[in-house]
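Researcher: I'm preparing a figure for a lab meeting and need a structural model of a single chain. I don't have an experimental structure, so a prediction will have to do for now. The sequence is pasted below. Please return the structure as tokens so I can convert it later.
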Amino acid sequence: MIPVRFHPELASGPWFTYSIAFQLGNVGSEVGRALKAKKKDVDFKENLALERALELLDLTIGDPRNRNQLVELCRLRECLCDFFVGENEFKSTDDLIDRYFLAFAYEAQMERRM
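Model: Understood. Here is the structure written out token by token.
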């Protein structure tokens, strides 16, 4: 079981009923908060938002329905850690990360309308 600090109510079951688009859209919301804090140089808020994003991403990785996307999900985790706390060896940018997650947020919105 994944240790959960910020989202215990989601980890107890509801998270695993959501689509991967909804899951990654929510990860992206936390990543967006981390990006905003990074731009404002507010390390405390950046770190908390990143921790929340990684927790949701870990739950997504742990969802058995997503096992066909494990390589992408694990690489995403690696890229986020590299960008926020590493040396940014992948040369990620705020815009690139934001656009990646925007696609999932859009898809999740489209799913809700159906």
